[in-house]
Amino acid sequence: MGDPLFWHRLQFGFTVTYHYLFPQLTMGLAFIIVLLKALGLKTGEAQYSEAARFWIRIFGINFVVGVVTGIPMEFQFGTNWAEFSRISGGVIGQSLAMEGMFAFFLESSFLGLLVWGERKLSPRAHFGAAVALWIGSWLSGYFIIVTNAFMQHPVGYTMGPGGIFQLADFWAFLLNPWAIAQYVHNMLATVVTASFVVAAVGAFWALKGLHPAQARLNLKAGVLLGFVFSLLLAFPAGDISGKMVAKYQPVSLAAMEGRFESGPHAELVMVGQPNVAKGRIDNPIQLPSVLSFLAYGSFSANVKGLNEFPREQWPTSIELLYYAYHIMVGLGTLLILIMGIGVLLNWKGRLETSRAMLWVLMLAFPFPYIATSAGWAVAEFGRQPWLIYGLLRTAQGPSPMVHAGETVFTSLGFAGIFVVLSFLFVYLIGREIAHGPVSPAPKA
Predict the structure, then answer these.
(1) Long-range own/partner contacts, residues 245-249 (CB < 8 A, 24 or more apart)
(2) How far apart are the first and last CA of the chain?
(3) pLDDT at 324 exceeding the cut of 60
(4) What does residue 316 show for φ and ψ, rounded to 5 degrees?
(5) What is the pLDDT of residue 8?
(6) Lower Cβ count inside 10 Å, N or C end of the chain?
(7) C-alpha distances in angstroms, 60 versus 96, 131, 132, 442?
(8) Cβ neighbours around 52 below 10 Å, total
(9) How far, in Å, are 135, 175, 237, 282, 437 from residue 214 at the CA level?
(10) Residue 304: closest CA among 248, 259, 242
(11) Mind listing the pLDDT tens digit for each residue in 397-437?
C-alpha cells in the first residue's frame, strides 16, 4: 500500500476539503442573513424578511451536512495523527475546545430559534437570534483558524518535558498575528462564496421567470456584496496575507512563485510552468519588480529564491503549491471581473434582462469554492514539510499503529458516505430552490 504518511495526508486533505464546502457557505450566509433581517426591520418591506427566511433554510441544510462531514476530521486527530495530538494537544486543544463549547453550541442553539421561532419571537428578537448565529459561526471560524495559525506561525508556547508543547501565553496564542490576517482573509472569502450563491439562485429564478421580486433582490444583493468583498479579499486582505508569508515563510513564497534564484526587482509570474529539476520557470509571462513590491512594499526589495534554502526545507509539493496559488489568484481576479460587470449592468438597469449575464452568474457559483479550496491548499502545501512550522515535521506526527491499508479502507468508507451525502444535499437544496421563498403563517 506504500507509505502510511502519504495515505494519512491524503485522507485528511480529502475529508477537510469536502467538509469545508459547507461551513464556508454558512459563515458567509450568516452575515448576509443579518443584513437582510436588518433591512427588513428598518424598511418594513416583506421582501427582505422573505429572502432571509429562504436563506435561513439553506443555512440549516448546509449546517447539518457540515457537522456530519466534520466528524471524521475530529477522529483523525486521535487515529491518524495521535503523535501530533500528544505533542501539541496542550496548546491546540484550547482553541479546539473553545470552538466546540462556545461557538458551535451558540451557533446551533440560535439556528433552532431562527428556523422554528419566527412565529413565536418578535421581529427584533428574531433579528437578535440572527446576530447571535452570525457571531457563533464567525467565532467558530476564528477558533479553527487560531489552531491552524499555530501550525503556520507558532507563538505563545513553551517546550515541556519530552518535547511536549505547553501553553505559555494564552493571549499571544489567541491573538497570533498570523491568525488575525488569515481570519480576515478567510471570512471575506466566505462572504464572496455566499454572494455568488445568492446571485446564482437569483439568476436561476430570473431565467425561469419565477419569483421576480426575490430574483431581483438576490441578484442585486449578490453582485453588490460579491464585488465589494472580492475587492476587499484582494486588497487589503490578500496583500496582508502575502506579506505575512514573505516575512515568516519566505521559502513558501519562493515555491508559490516558482522562484529559484534570489535577487532584487523580483518578477511576478503570471503564466509559466515550474521546472524543479532544472530550477526555472518554463514559458514564463512575468511582471518585472511586482513580486518585490507585493512581498515587501518596495520594487527593489530582494526576494529570496528556493536555492537560498537547504533542500530539506523546501515544500514537498512545489508544483502543486505553485498551481494552487495561481488558480487561487487567477480565480480571485475573475470573481472581481464577473461581479464588477454585474454591478455595472445593475447600475444601468439591465442586469435582470441580460440573459448572457444571468447565465454567467448562475454557472459561476463554483468558482469561489474552487478558489477557497486552492487557497487552503496553498496554506497547507506551503507549510510542508512541517506540521508545526520549524518545530515539528509532518513525518513525526502520524500514529505509529495505523497502517496504510487501514487508512485506505477508511478513506473508501468516507468517500462512500460523502457520495450519499452529496446526493441528499443536492436533492434538499434543489427542493428548496424549487419551492422558492415562502411567506410564514401569521404570528401566533
Answers:
(1) 245/382, 246/295, 246/296, 246/303, 248/152, 248/153, 248/178, 248/389, 249/152, 249/153, 249/382, 249/383, 249/389
(2) 62
(3) yes
(4) -80, -15
(5) 95
(6) C
(7) 23, 15, 15, 22
(8) 26
(9) 26, 41, 32, 49, 8
(10) 259
(11) 999 999 999 999 999 999 999 999 999 999 999 999 999 98
Residue with grid cell 508556547, as numbered in its chain: 157
Amino acid residing at 428: L
CA-to-CA distance for 255 and 242, rounded, in angstroms?
13
| C-alpha cell of residue 387 | 506540521
**Which set of grid coordinates corresponds to residue 84?**
501530533
Tell me the sheet residues that pair with 158: 166
At position 305, the amino acid (one-letter code) is G
Enumerate the domain spans of the chain.
Answer: 24-435
Instruction: Write out the chain in H/E/C secondary structure.
Output: CCCHHHHHHHHHHHHHHHHHCCHHHHHHHHHHHHHHHHHHHHHCCHHHHHHHHHHHHHHHHHHHHHHHHHHHHHHHHHHCCHHHHHHHHHHHHHHHHHHHHHHHHHHHHHHHHHHHCCCCCCHHHHHHHHHHHHHHHHHHHHHHHHHHHHHHCCCCEEECHHHCEEECCHHHHHCCHHHHHHHHHHHHHHHHHHHHHHHHHHHHHHHHCCCHHHHHHHHHHHHHHHHHHHHHHHHHHHHHHHHHHHHHCHHHHHHHCCCCCCECCCCEEEEEEEECCCCEEEEEEEECCHHHHHHHCCCCCCECCHHHCCHHHCCCCHHHHHHHHHHHHHHHHHHHHHHHHHHHHHHCCCCCCCHHHHHHHHHCCHHHHHHHHHHHHHHHHHHCCEEECCCEEHHHCCCCCCCHHHHHHHHHHHHHHHHHHHHHHHHHHHHHHHHCCCCCCCCC
Cell reading at 198: 445568492
Q: Is the pTM of this model over 0.90?
A: yes
